[in-house]
Write a structure and sequence with these properties.
globular, alpha+beta, 5 strands, Ubiquitin-like (UB roll), single chain
């Protein structure tokens, strides 16, 4: 079957098997590797992407379900000139990563969190990211990064879904 969607600002139409998960479509068909396959059970959040602006675990969505949708992966957050999204920049500045495996999912979940709550408390951040697991960092710097991004106005940043200005 054919599916059409806007991925990181570009329209795509691809042939997929009806049972293909969005994460596998993004990685195998589109060549976008940021959404990682960590658990295949929706427990870890390493595959988190934005689907029509909402943070979703792409291992729980069929590619066919994304028909006509806007999909944003971590590759699509940076501006066309390479300027990092405020959440990406905050993760870098606050050392919110170690091995990097969970980082794309954490960043995407953080973008979704800040979209819904532009001025979260530390507790809001911890609760908002509880569906994303990190085995390396202890979360302290991740939480600091999200709070720093909130202070930079990342919740109001429109590049996440508006054609990467």
């Amino acid at each position: 079957m054919q599916v059409s969607m806007n991925i990181n600002g570009q329209e795509r139409t691809d042939e997929v098997e009806p049972r293909t998960l969005l994460v596998h479509h993004l990685r195998e068909t589109c060549g976008l590797r940021a959404a990682n396959v960590g658990c295949d059970t929706s427990s870890c959040g390493a595959c988190t992407v934005l689907l029509d602006g909402e943070a979703v675990k792409s291992c729980t969505v069929l590619a066919a379900q994304a028909e006509g949708c806007e999909v944003t992966t971590a590759e699509g957050l940076a501006a066309q000139d390479g300027t990092m999204h405020p959440v990406q920049a905050a993760f870098q500045a606050e050392h919110g990563l170690q091995c990097g495996f969970c980082t794309p999912g954490m960043v995407m979940a953080s973008v979704g969190l800040l979209r819904d709550n532009p001025h979260p408390s530390e507790r809001d951040v911890r609760e908002g990211l509880e569906g994303n697991l990190c085995r390396c960092t202890g979360y302290h710097n991740i939480v600091r990064a999200v709070l720093a991004a909130a202070g930079a106005g990342a919740g109001a940043d429109s590049r996440t879904m508006e054609g990467q200005a």
